């Protein structure tokens, strides 16, 4: 299914220079999935349609891609701010990339594979739920909920 990206944080797209993603990778010490790099470069701060995904025995929704660029007015949607919030509460190797409508985080999980992170949901209680074996599988599995 083809994904349409809708404005969320800003009213218009905010393209991202690949050097900003390179800096994020250096800061985190990981290699971001190529599909994620492609998508966030043109759609940071936007929400996908369809947006539903399965987690545990139910489903949730992918609300918005966190922004990688610096915008102090949009700090609640900042990938860096989200990482600061999560870091003390989750194991090393978990990095946020998106939010759900309930304020939970979709994250890359590099704990088992530094080359191919899984996608997990980190709940408000900081419980980690598996979602998909890769970002590509996750994006391909989004559906209308």
From TrEMBL:
<dbReference type="InterPro" id="IPR037883">
    <property type="entry name" value="Knr4/Smi1-like_sf"/>
</dbReference>
<feature type="domain" description="Knr4/Smi1-like">
    <location>
        <begin position="15"/>
        <end position="141"/>
    </location>
</feature>
<dbReference type="InterPro" id="IPR018958">
    <property type="entry name" value="Knr4/Smi1-like_dom"/>
</dbReference>
<dbReference type="Pfam" id="PF09346">
    <property type="entry name" value="SMI1_KNR4"/>
</dbReference>
<protein>
    <submittedName>
        <fullName>SMI1/KNR4 family protein</fullName>
    </submittedName>
</protein>
């Amino acid at each position: 299914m083809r994904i349409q990206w809708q404005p969320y944080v800003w009213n218009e797209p905010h393209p991202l220079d690949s050097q900003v993603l390179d800096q994020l990778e250096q800061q985190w010490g990981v290699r971001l999935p190529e599909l994620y790099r492609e998508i966030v470069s043109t759609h940071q701060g936007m929400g996908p349609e369809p947006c539903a995904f399965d987690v545990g025995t139910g489903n949730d929704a992918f609300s918005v891609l966190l922004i990688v660029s610096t915008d102090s007015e949009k700090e609640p949607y900042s990938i860096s701010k989200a990482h600061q919030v999560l870091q003390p509460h989750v194991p090393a190797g978990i990095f946020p990339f998106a939010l759900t409508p309930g304020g939970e985080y979709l994250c890359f999980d590099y704990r088992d594979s530094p080359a191919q992170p899984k996608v997990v949901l980190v709940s408000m209680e900081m419980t980690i739920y598996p979602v998909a074996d890769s970002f590509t599988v996750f994006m391909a599995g989004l559906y209308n909920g």
